[in-house]
Amino acid sequence: MITPNRAKFLAVVAVVAATLLFAVNSGVSRILLWSGITPATLISFRLTITAMLMAGWAVLTSRRMLRPPSGRLMLVVVIHGIVGVAALQTLFLVAVDRITLGLALTVQYMAPILVALWVRHVQRIDLPRQVWLGLGLSLLGLAAVTRIWSGLTADPLGLLASIGAASCFATYFIVGEVAASVTDTLRLLIWSFAAGAVGLNIVAPAWNLLGHLGRQVTLQGRLDSLDVPLWAVVVWFVVLGTMVPYVMVLGSMRLLSATVVSSTHMLEPAAGFAIGWMWFAEAMSPIAVLGCAAVMAGVLLAQRGTQAVSGATANRWDAECRASGL
To answer: What is the dihedral of CA 64, 70, 73, 76, to 10 degrees?
Structure first.
């Protein structure tokens, strides 16, 4: 029998593994983007196929997971799917296409700062001083990474997209913790991805990608001499880069708070810098490296300061939703 402490340890391991898969997938996405596929089409295909695969798994294992959510939970799931999944992934790919992997991930992972601002100014809950210290440290670090004093060196649209992705990521954690506390992980994933897929298919139909699947593409960067079938890259992108890590993360959120999960996710920017350097030869100045470290340190400070508030908020939503029969 697995003890509670061991279960939490295994949940952390799962989040770490998911984080590394997400980081690698950032590089994999570039292969597809640089082959001419638009971010919206790629994410539309990704969400559609992933939702279908998860629904098929539910048919074989637990058909009750296909039961649509209702009432307040339906609203939560739709927001989670359209904002926290579809918009997040699309904006992040726009950023990855235009700026370095490390910078795109660093800005996106300022999401906990936005969560802290939400708690303070929307929920009107007082936060410890260390949260504001973390906010200041993160902003200074971001200024160092972008070298704002020399004029904006990063692509403005790419930087704006990464800021948008950070906002969506904050929504993903806030709403995801609420939904994961009152429903099963697989059910949440199926209906969140379905909501995101429906929304994106309206503007970028998934079938637009089918005509590309028979092509050969290079692995880009330092691996540019290697050719692979595009369909194989898409399979990695959808299965190992989407379905597997999302299941790991949301499953872990039943044992860990959103704050703990997002803290562990801070490994992803560091992994992104490593992948950007090893795979795409993206060098960073010493000041930019220090800036990245400052951003991550600031985010961790803010997370520690909001951890108790996050748990209390989730527990309140849990009680309200269960009282409503959701």
So the answer is: 110
Going from the C-alpha of 263 to that of each of 79, 151, 186, 253, the distances in angstroms are 23, 31, 23, 12
pLDDT in tens, 153-211: 678 899 899 999 999 988 887 887 777 777 787 888 889 999 999 999 999 999 999 88
Tokens of 46: 């990704």
Q: How many CB atoms lie within 10 A of CB 238?
A: 20
pLDDT of 312 over the 80 cut: no
Instruction: Decide if 45 contacts 90 (C-beta within 8 A).
Output: no
Q: Give the closest residue to 258 by CA, choosing from 181, 320, 164.
A: 181
- Select the more confidently predicted residue: 271 or 83: 83
**The token pair that represents 113 in the structure block:** 């700062």
DSSP result, 178-202? HHHTTS-HHHHHHHHHHHHHHHHHH
Which residue's entry shows tokens 């260390």? Answer: 130
CB 160 within 8 A of CB 50: no
Provide φ and ψ at 67, rounded to 5°.
-65, 120
Bridge partner list, 227: 218
Q: Give the 3-state secondary structure of residue 220.
A: coil
pLDDT, residue 262, reads 66
* Chain centroid to CA 20: 12
- Kindly report the length of the chain: 326
Q: CA 185, CA 9: separation in Å to the nearest integer? A: 19
Which residue, among 221, 92, 96, has the nearest Cα to 154 in the 3D structure? 96
> What's the predicted TM-score (pTM) here?
0.81
Among 80, 114, 111, 139, CA closest to 269: 111
Place of tokens 């200041």: 136
